[in-house]
Structures are given as C-alpha cells and as structure tokens.
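Q: How would the structure tokens look for this protein?
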Amino acid sequence: MRRILRAPAPLAVGVSLALCGAFAVLAALAQNGDNPKGAPGPRSTRAISTAPAPGGTPAPARAKDPRLVDLDQRIAALRADRKSQVEPLEAQLKALRERFDAQIDSLESQRKAIIEAGESPALRELDERETADLAALAEREKGDLEQVRQRYEAQKKDLRADYAAKRKALAG
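A: Here is the predicted structure in token form.
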C-alpha cells in the first residue's frame, strides 16, 4: 500500500513541470499583444478594416498606405502561426487534465466515503443541509451574475453605438 501511494509522486512532479512550461508559453503568447476572445482589456472595439467606407469609397489613408497592408499580412501570419502552435498544447493540457481529474475524483470519493463512515448520523445530516444551502446560494449567485453581465453588455452596446455615431459625424 505504501509503495502505491509513493509511485505517483515523480509522475506528478514531471506533469506539474510540463504544465508550468505550457502555461508559461501560453502566458508569453498572450503578452504579445493579442487578447483572446472574451478576455478583458482596454482594446478598442473598433474594427480596423481596409474595406471601402459605407459610402462606397475607400478611406483615403487606409486604402493607399502599403504599410498597413504589409502590417495586416504580418499580423495574420503571426496569428495563424500562434494558433498552429498553441492548439496542440491546449489539446495536450486537456488530455492531461481529464486523465488526472478522473484519478483524483476517484481518490477523493474514496476519502469522503471513509470519512463519512466514521461520522454520526446527526453530523452527516448537518453536512448534507450545508451542502444543499451552499448549492442554492451558488444558483442564486449565478442568476445575479448573469443579470450583471447582461447589464454590462447593454452598456457596451450603447457605448459602441455612441462612438460609431461620433465616427460617422467626423467622417462627414
């Protein structure tokens, strides 16, 4: 029994180091200036496009400047390269999490069963009521958070519309 408990330790250390390395890579990629979808940040929501303006004529500065075309191509190439390198790492992380989570869940359920076997029925009932009350509170919290999220989304939509109108007024 003692040998079984000691065997996963070197494996756990190795996996921990691998996960730390993978997270370091992902953090470095995230610091290179591109926010993942849904990530908070001060970036403008205005899309920079080389497409023609709504009037049918291209925006003068954007359409004629070859530097912008070059930058757009370089940005697209870097994003594609990053995606091709990050996706396999994310798949490996997912597989590792699934493998270890299954083992951890099994061991935690065994531990819980041993603890509950030694408890009195009154203490077990108290624990069950606490779990139920905490679950109800968590559900209420989810509802409240969703309402706050919706309120902020509406405010963001209004801000975007205001700034779009201001841009349109500046364009003439």
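The chain has two domains: 16-29+63-118, 121-172.

The longest helix spans residues 66-117.

Upvote if useful.
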